[in-house]
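Q: Focus on the chain.
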Amino acid sequence: MEKMKQIIIKSLREYPSILDFYKKKNYLIVDINLAELKEKKELLNFISNKLKFPSFSGENLDAFRDWLLDLSWLKEIKVVILIKNLEGLVSLPLFKILFELLEEAHDYHKEN
């Protein structure tokens, strides 16, 4: 039986120690610096590249969601998404949608 995927989402204050912890456990690490990624297409493409989506063109949130809920192509069983510079950006609509999608993916992979 194939092991289930797991997604963990962290907002980082103690970044180096958390990063080392997950590296040692062989997680696929998606390191997002929100200070550098402020446009929807840029952010979604960045995450889709890090998660090695088979195909994605940056604008379609439904397709992004579908890929997040699949992840069958990843050899890594566990994924950690590390988010830096979250402060001040969480009130923006794009980031609210992104976090809802990431939480849904987290819950889905936790249950399945």
Notes: Residues 93-111 form the longest helix (19 residues). The mean pLDDT is 78. Residues 32 and 95 are 12 Å apart (CA to CA).
